[in-house]
Amino acid sequence: MDEIAFLCKHYAAEYIALCKPNLVSTGSRTATWKRPNQGWVKVNSDGVFSENTGEGGWGVVIRDEEGEVVEAAAGKLTRLMDAFQSEVEACLAGVMLVGERGFGRIVVETDSLVLKQALKTSSHRLAATGGLICEIQNLLASEFSGFQVDYAPRSCNKVAHALAAIGCKCSHGAGLRWESTPTLVEDLVANDRAASLS
User: Fold this and answer.
1) pLDDT value at position 4?
2) Are the C-beta atoms of residues 74 and 166 closer than 8 Å to each other?
3) Cβ pair 25, 56 in contact under 8 A
4) Which CATH class is domain 2-22+36-197?
């Protein structure tokens, strides 16, 4: 029962945060992706979930302090319980990918407030996704000399979202990896880089 109450509270907070830009006057600027500090890399992840099929996809993009894509990846997800699980699976894939590359300091950025909260506390340890969340927390603590977990609205996570949509189209068990900017998201990456300069 505590888990349900916690999830309801955090999904409500996420919904309110997503609606806030609509309440602001039209003259305000939309949030944009920001580059990590010198010597850090940023990993953006996103998950996609179809309630009809219980399937989805994940997408991950790792970028350096210049906004250059270091690596990107996407894959299919099956047997999902909900959208939150797709977010957790995507984040785990991203953290594992950064760990493989041997980077020391990382920023994990997600457009899920619930995931950010779960990674910063032990509140989800008994949830269905608790094991995956603990795995991410353990990787962050043991594999990196420095890390931070940030929330950013969907407008800052367009590249990972587009990659997750590509991941939905992968065959089961297959994934895609790119060691530079994937052609399908070149414009989105270029827009993020330009916006991060202003």
Assistant:
1) 53
2) yes
3) no
4) alpha beta
Block means of pLDDT (10 residues each) for the chain, 198 residues, are: 49 48 50 96 97 96 97 97 97 97 97 95 86 96 97 96 96 90 96 91
Q: Phi/psi class of residue 177: alpha, beta or left (left: φ > 0; alpha: ψ in -120 to 50)?
A: beta
Q: Classify strands 69-77 and 146-151 as parallel, antiparallel or unpaired.
A: unpaired
Q: Which segments of the chain are extended strands (E)?
A: 41-50, 55-63, 69-77, 105-110, 146-151, 175-178
Fill in the amino acid letter for 182: P
Residue 159 dihedral angles phi and psi, to the nearest 5°: -65, -50
How many residues can be counted in the chain? 198
Domain residue ranges of the chain, discontinuous segments joined by +: 2-22+36-197
Here the tokens at position 157 are 């996570």
What's the CA gap between 126 and 19, in Å, rounded? 29
For Cα atoms 11, 157, 54, give the angle at the middle one, nearest 5 degrees: 55
Q: Which token pair is 97?
A: 């990918």
pTM, full prediction: 0.85
Token digits of residue 2: 């505590």
